[in-house]
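ARCHIVE CARD
Drawer: 12
Card no.: 0347
Subject: one protein chain, sequence and derived structure
Cross-reference: see card 0346
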Amino acid sequence: MIQKVLSIASVFWFLLSPNSASPQELPATKPPQDQFPAYVLGPADVITLHAIDVEEISNKPIWIDTDGFINLPLVGRLKVAGMTTQEAESLLNDRLRTYVKDPHVVVAVTDFRSQPVSVLGMVGRPGVHQLQGRKTLLEILSLAGGMTPEAGATARLTRRIEYGEIPVQGATVDGSGQFSTAQVHLKAIVDGLSPNENILIRPHDVISVPKGEIVYVIGDVKKAGGFVLSDRKKTTVMEVLAMAEGMGQDANRKKAEILRLASEQEERSRIVVNLDKIFSGKETDIAMQAEDILVISTSFSKSAMRKIAGTAGTMAIRAAIYGLY
């Protein structure tokens, strides 16, 4: 009986203990620490030291030279490239103990220059951007001005193998063994369908956002122009018409055309499309291809009838007006 009471008491003590973990806080549910690496100092970074009772080095910007060293009064030349700020603080404190009884140095990065990331293609500000700490793919794309309307649904990443393989499905290592490459689905990330692909970006990563595959709609539609194909397997004529906000009142629904580039030829082939039959389900909707041009011509009979109806209506109104006098 006493053992049973002690067992129950020990269970309650564990549950009420502030150090006990709830099911949501178990270590297994936390992301691995290597997913959130500390910032590593590198050449061209600028740091500022805050050191109590050491005015010679305190509150002054210090540039890390191309070899990764800093040169300071009292402590001399030290290599800090490859260290985290915490490791650099520990090294400086060790060196200063010769001159200061209880040194306390804090290292702050005031200018990030050693972790460039290249963002190319269909973004607002393509070029080289600095990580400035931990940044995900979407955060870097945001720093680059975001994706333009012409951007495709996927992006290509290239990473130096020294930073590990890119942690997404389908990543490969190139023939030289020096780079990891992968394709990520930007639209799926933005839509919340593949949040695991919104990975942390590493120094010297190259992010390329290509131009999306575009189809064009011209003629009697409400919104003519080019439209980026989605990352689905196919986009059909009906879907493209929806992007163009539908047809005009005088559209020739029985004789639209798709102008399609034939392989290795500059001339386009013509595919006649009967929209009425597709709408009614008598014919299968047609899949569009990149660079297709959907032409919705105007029905001259509909246009003529509309003009006649407009003229007749105007004459009737005039007759009614003049008939009142």
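Annotation on reverse: Residues 1-35 have pLDDT under 50 and may be disordered. The radius of gyration is 33 Å.
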